[in-house]
Design brief:
Length: about 600
Amino acid sequence: MYGARLSQHSWKVNLIRRINEAVPKFTDIFDEDTFYLTAFLVVIGSFMKRCIAEFLSRKDVIVQAPTGSGKTLSYALPVIEILMKAKKKWKKDEIGAVVLVPSRELAGQVKAVFEAFLSVAPLRVILFVGGRKVRKDVVKFKIDGQEGRPVGDLLLSFTFFRGNIVIATPGRLQLLTDRKEMDLDLKACMRSLEVLILDEADRLLDLGFSTSLSSIMDNLPKTRRTGLFSATMPERMEELVKAGMRNPSRIVVGGEEQLLSSSGQPEKAFRDQPPSETVPFSLKMYYAVVPAQAKFLALVKFLKKHKTNKILVFFNTCRCVDYFGSYLEKTFKNSTSVLLLHGKKQHQRQKLFDHFQSLSEGMLITTDVMTRGVDIADIDWVVQFDPPRQSNWFVHRCGRTARLGKPGNALILLMPNEEGYADFLTKSLNVKLRRLNIQCPEELCLKMRDKLRARAANSREILELGTKAFVGYIQAYLLRDCHIVCDFKELDVVNLAYCFGLLRFPVMRELRARDTSGFVRSSVNTSSIPYSNPKSEEQRQSIRQERGNVSKKCRTNRQKTDLNKSKKRHGRSVIDARDLAELDNDYRLLKRLKKKKITKKEFDEQFAPD
């Protein structure tokens, strides 16, 4: 069936045979006709062979393996094998496999892995992710491919389809499935679906895709094979397993827990590295405890020491990435590349990501958008400025380095009130951290504070960004799941404000009960700090002038209102006194009449004079 293709790639077949000699049991998984698909592989992990074998024996599989262990290959190979054996030729309007991933960056990498093998296989792969119009996805899926055909005809015909393997984010695939955009019926295209893959499944749930996943699975054939791949297995994952899988085989890389096999009998989880390891064994992890005021200084000192390495730096918020990242860009401008990437940089993300991929050294300052699944070559260090919002994300952040057995290092910066976090990770995630000392003398901390304040004093953009970054930091701190070991009440907010180089302490509802009287405000008049952009500054001055006029008018109106109220009060008091005097006079007349000191005629004349 594939002889013509194999004849064009005879060198690959010879390479495969040499691999066969090194890994003789691998031929039990693939027949010789399709074994050429592994020609690109150098090392096949034991758990990968187990996963492929289970998949090809028509079983659903659940694979729990550390990040960077090669999970993508462990499902890409059997997916291609299953589709090639299911039909001699797949129609262009048939989708045989769907791979769901949590982010567009990971989707692009998974697509690249499939394309490496599909260059010699009669299958096509297509990508559906957010960040572009739905219409473009539909047009891309329905492209005819006939040269010279007008675009208008392509949009009208909708006959020729271009994807047997769909790699998508859940939100976009649900949108395309539920809506018949431009007469595309994706549900009908998936009637022949053989395989569903959920990659980084725990992250899919963390991002709130559970509703989308349920909707998608309801539209897929019940006879499909399903693979669930993840680095962690939280309890809520079992609901997804029950809803979308049938007696799955479980493969745990690291761990000795008892699990059920596809036959329902208990068996020991398949293990491919030392027990109780949830991170790659080649990864070395460190933590450093520094005062709140010295935290950014410690990061800068560490980065200067390792500026010839390739480093990934994690912050918890986009504003912290922009604020501290802008300082790092200026600091390392002449020595190494510093790139900033987060979820709000939608249009720049892929370009920045590709650029960092090509670097042999440099720094990528990012948020948790880069936490999961994304494979960046040869990361030397992963540095975490803060503990992540969810503790299990710590493992996934660290997993960006030490991939596929390569050495790697990870560091997390902690404040004194967070020192117990290292022990917490050891007990809850079975990871061991070594303490790293970073010296931060007080005089250097003050110099760093003054540098950050000087930047803010010269640019209103930086002043406002720093304030927003601090506010976002506090709000993110309150969302952490480890409140006991990272007690917010013990957080040194005053010195943390110095760490951000704030000129003034912001008014925040979250800090209303905290004593911030120790904060020494800068002598700089913040209202006089201009924007570096002339148009923005002109607009600010115009708004200030309008507010001043409104305030002046309000003061004038308030003064008039107060005067009128005073007059009314004074008038009422005068009237009330006159009435009382007349009443008193009438009372005296009445008493004199009763005592017969005056006559009735005299009383009438004085009581009601004409």
